[in-house]
Amino acid sequence: MQLKYYLIFIALIFIEVSFAQQNHIVILEKTNGNQVYKVSGNFPKDWIKSKWDTGYRIQNVNFKTNEWFVVMNKTEKGFSQRYMLSPSSQQIKDKLKDGYTIQDISLYVSSNTIRRFYLFKKISVNPVSVYFFAGSPNYNHSISKEVKDGWNKGWFCKNIKSIQYKNRIAFSVLMPRKRNNEDQLIEYRADFPHDLLSNKKSQGYKLTSITYDQNKKSWCVVMTKKKAVKKTNGTGNIWWWETPPQTDWTWFNYKTQKSNIDDYIHNKGYSIVGLN
After folding, report:
1. How many helices and strands, by DSSP H and E, does the chain display?
2. Which parts of the sequence belong to the DUF7477 domain (predicted)?
């Protein structure tokens, strides 16, 4: 009898991990904004165009099991955006030379091949530097190594993504700006990291990105915490360290908790800030 319940327990863990791997994980923060999103089996280029025309700009893009998830925000001051499906290395370099930064990267499958979606945002008239990697894991490249290499160069990790299709694995790491007053951590857990997320949230961290690393068969988590800053009194004789307040955040699985996501967006003042 004990063996029976043990096998049921193992099966439930396997189902939870597999289900989470195959579905969009949505990160929300309490930041009021005018936001819309669309989930579609085909890339929603016509919907994006219609929203662009009314002042929205793409915030996040994700792809899971033949399904696109696109989030767009209404902006008071418009800026130029471009996206490319499976661009060449030269096309990416040209965009950076023309003053665009990489705003998002999403791995997707098309024609039995893992491809990459790039979202570009115009920020300068001069060439722009971005630390990023998109490729396959091997001895020289891994998610944690690429993130730590970026940290050593002073960059901030915005997202990590991983995908497996048939016998091929690929991942991407995007670090589009320099780190300011922030600490980041990267950790792995074999099971879905409920406890890690809860523990670190209680310590002032917020979830930045999460993906299942098929190469390591573990969940890879990046979290961020604002650093304490030095405060002084009027004379400067007394000083102390104060940690800036974090905005409240949460996460949901889109397939099983879509109603929660809509409730938080429409009724509780939250906005989607990340997709994995």
Report:
1. 6, 19
2. 26-103
Which residue intervals of the chain are DSSP H helices?
A: 2-21, 45-53, 89-97, 143-152, 194-202, 254-267
Domain total in the chain: 1
pLDDT digit string, tens, across residues 199-227: 999 999 999 999 999 999 999 999 999 98
Q: Rounded to 5 degrees, what angle do the CA atoms 9, 14, 18 make? A: 150
Give CA–CA dist 49/76, Å, rounded: 18
pLDDT tens for 49-85 read 999 999 999 999 999 989 999 999 998 777 899 999 9
In a domain, 20, yes or no: no
CB 87 within 8 A of CB 102: no
- Is 115 part of a structural domain of the chain? yes
Contacts of 52 (CB under 8 A, 6+ apart): 81
C-alpha dist (Å) from residue 172 to 115, 123, 132: 11, 22, 7
Tokens, residue 214? 């098929």
| Predicted structure pTM score | 0.87
Containing structural domain, residue 208: 1-7+25-275
Would 47 be classed as within a structural domain? Answer: yes
Q: Is the residue at 19 inside a domain? A: no
Q: Rounded to a whole number, what is the distance in angstroms from the first to the last CA of the chain?
A: 39
